[in-house]
Amino acid sequence: MTSTVPIPQGIPLQRVQPFDPPTDLTALRDERPVSRMIYPDGHEGWLVTGYDAARAVLADVRFSSRRELIRSPISLDVPPQRLEPAPPGAMIVTDPPEHTRYRRLLMGQFTVRRMNQLTPRIQQITDDHLAAMRKEGPPADLVRSFALPIPSLVICELLGVPYETRDEFQRESAVLFDLHIKAEQRQAAATKLERFLQDLVEHKRAEPGDDLLGGLVTGSDLTDEELTNIGLLLLIAGHETTANMLALGTFALLQHPEQMAALRSEPELAVNAVEELLRYLSIIHIGPMRAATEDVEIEGELIRAGESVTVSVPGANWDSARFPEPEQLDITRRATGHLSFGHGVHQCLGQQLARVEMRIAYPALLREFPTLGLAVPAREVPLRTDMAIYGVHRLPVTW
Amino acid sequence: MFVEANPERCCGAGMCALAAPEVFGQDEEAGTVLVLASPPDVEHWEAVQDAVQLCPSGAIRIVMSRVDEQPI
Ligand code: SF4
Fold first, then answer.
1. How many helices (H) and strands (E) does chain A have?
2. Strands A44-48 and A308-311, sheet pairing
3. Residue contact B28–A112, C-beta within 8 A
4. Do B13 and A348 touch (CB under 8 A)?
5. Confidence bin at A178 (pLDDT 50/70/90)
6. Which sequence spans correspond to the domains of chain B?
7. pLDDT in tens, A233-249
8. Model pTM?
9. Which has the closest alpha carbon to A354: A237, A229, A233, A216?
10. Is A14 a domain residue?
11. CB of A282 within 8 A of CB of A48?
12. B16 lines ligand 1 (CB under 6 A)
């Protein structure tokens, strides 16, 4: 095939506009949705940017999630040797049947119904934070006052993590997600987080409580090491994702005043608006990553056993073959089917929690602050292009 | 049309219960899929099709008659 778009060297992350996927990525998708990519370690692997192909890869168990088989599509300061196999409990980088065993222990805790039952509490947490923000401002940093603390408090309560300790693990998890951090600092942060969770598990053994971790301590035969790694995964995943969606989503609404006005006047649109914001913003901008365990043909391209495959969620979610006029933020479109929570057996376990949080938080913010606006020019909002999860570092707002 | 589910394959993502709550539920303890109505009412057919399409693990499907039934 003669292609005018060059084979990328690592996954393109450079954005021209804050909400649009990198133009190199979309150009590649339009030409070759399953493309070769040169990984930073020199490996000739693949980058999948088309919607159908992305779904096909993520649903296919011949593509492994095992950490020791996967290569990073971005250049990180890590020692050159391959990654270690997952420690017990780190289910996100394992395959069935190990993955299935852990997932089954948690599935019952995250059902649609259970998450909906949290509505009154999430509503109250949201109202409290909005009241506090009003007292302190204007102006305010929406990340610090609203987007981060709400999901943080919710996941802490759900898991049974003392909220007073949040500064400690939020600081370390920010280090883990920083793409430019030095290897020693990353290692130090990982160790501290692990120790934090180990202490917590030890505490739960003594006093289980009726929260999720307490329930796992008493109701399963998981080892302390497994509990530590599962707790770490849930705690970090419950923070970084929803927090970035709330802040970046608010930024996107502020930049699309007609969409914001529609959501403000019709809060019932929130259910659909959340799906559309998830599609439009695709905060998971690197991966999911997989490795082929057999030769597999996807859309006419032969992916050989052992080759690494990186799926681009922003690419897939802006595929016009699936979502017409993908560059339009339209909170009334049918946006379900987006890949922002992934696809296949690893699809986000906490997605129903994230949905409930966002369905409550966005309309509440718009209702409480009818004159909400940016406190700085849009181009001065610091973007998280340097982080493993996209979003904004700060969102200065006024009212 | 009838619907079938394989709880063994289900990964508890809840997309079915979200898309077609009249037809699919989730087991309270295990979190796995439950079929609440098979055959589903005609008015839910579209939602059922969405649910099948959205299910990340291929754990639910539509069959045209009971005779087609085979393990998923
Ligand atoms: S959508 Fe599929 S995986 Fe998710 S709960 Fe329903 S059957 Fe299970």
1. 15, 10
2. parallel
3. no
4. yes
5. confident
6. 2-63
7. 888 888 889 999 999 99
8. 0.91
9. A237
10. no
11. no
12. yes
Number of domains in chain A: 1
CATH number at residue A156: 1.10.630.10
Reply yes or no on whether the pLDDT at A79 is more than 70.
no
- For A103-124, the pLDDT digits (tens) are 888 888 888 888 888 899 999 9
Burial of A324 per CB tally in 10 Å (0-12, 13-18, 19+): exposed
Provide the 8-state DSSP code for A374.
Answer: E
pLDDT at B70: 60
Is residue A81 very low, low, confident or very high in pLDDT (cuts 50, 70, 90)? low
Amino acid, res. A97? P
| CATH number among 3.40.50.1980, 3.40.50.300, 3.30.1360.20, 3.30.70.20, domain B2-63 | 3.30.70.20
Which residue in the block uniquely carries the two structure tokens 């940093």?
Answer: A141
How large a percentage of chain B has pLDDT more than 90? 57
For residue B5, how far is its CA from the centre of ligand 1 (angstroms)? 9
**Distance (Å, rounded) from C-alpha A21 to C-alpha A316?**
10
